[in-house]
Amino acid sequence: EVAFANPPEDAVLHGLVARSLGMVSSQQGDYRTAQTAAERAVSLFRSVGEMELEAKALNNSAIAAVHLGEYDRARELLMKCRERARALGDEEMQARMEHYVLNALGSIAVMEERPREAEQWFAECLTLCERLREREGAATALMNLGLVALALERLHEATVRFREGLRLADELQKTLTTVNCIVGLAGVAARAGARPRAGRLLGITQRFLDDSGAALEPYPRRFA
User: Fold this and answer.
1) Among 31, 96, 97, 38, CA closest to 66
2) What is the 3-state secondary structure (H, E, C) of 127-171?
3) Tens-digit pLDDT profile for the chain (224 aa)?
4) Is 28 exposed, middle or buried (0-12, 13-18, 19+ CB in 10 A)?
5) pTM of the entire predicted model
6) What's the rounded Cα separation, in Å, for the pair 31 and 141?
């Protein structure tokens, strides 16, 4: 926040500060600050022709828009992110940016209550991440597939997906994905009538959130 309020003259450094603030704010559930910071990062990276960093900042801005319920804006930003990634001419970089886009498109479909469409986006994302050996992206996709399966009342499948995602997220020390998977397992337990287990799992997630200062994201919150 201090660096953001007193920006360095170097545009790239200024952009990195803005993007970092946006990412931390998003983790804490302050999506409006996250969006403002990401938009500044996009503008700065674009001004100096840093297309890879611009693509990443566009993705950050899109995620904030998803959480704020601005779905048309989020789709617009994701298409710009994809466009910038393709313009780089680096197939591996393009593929790695694509998994962010696919996960985000799935999240929009979920929030707009189109779970079967979301499932297609998340499954495509998981396949891509497995090909790239992108474990963090795979953990997120598995968690998202678990939430879709839970929404469709496919409880066994949801349990398998959450456990796979939880194992990866725990290994990578990705707190929010870990928490989201545990919330999902709590949702499975509640739907199966095991309410004491659901309560214990939610208690665990609260300890994670209290220790890290992170906030539960809007969609998993439906199952909390």
Assistant:
1) 31
2) HHHHHHCCHHHHHHHHHHHHHHHHHCCCHHHHHHHHHHHHHHHHH
3) 999 999 889 999 999 999 999 999 999 999 999 999 999 999 999 999 999 999 999 999 999 999 999 999 999 999 999 999 888 888 888 888 899 999 999 999 988 999 999 999 999 999 999 999 999 999 999 999 999 999 999 999 999 999 999 999 999 999 889 999 999 999 999 999 999 999 999 999 888 888 888 888 776 666 55
4) middle
5) 0.88
6) 21
The closest alpha carbon to 31, from 221, 223, 201, belongs to 221
Task: Give the tokens for residue 82.
Answer: 């994809």
Count Cα neighbours of 147 within 13 Å in the Cβ-side half-sphere: 32
| Residue among 173, 107, 189 at smallest CA distance from 144 | 107
CA-atom Rg of the chain in angstroms: 18
Residue with tokens 């985000």: 104
Tokens (6 digits) for 57: 């900042």
For residues 144 and 119, is the Cβ–Cβ distance under 8 A? no
Rounded CA-CA distance 89/102 in Å is 19
Q: What is d(CA 193, CA 97) in angstroms, rounded to the nearest whole number?
A: 40
Chain centre to alpha carbon of residue 89: 25
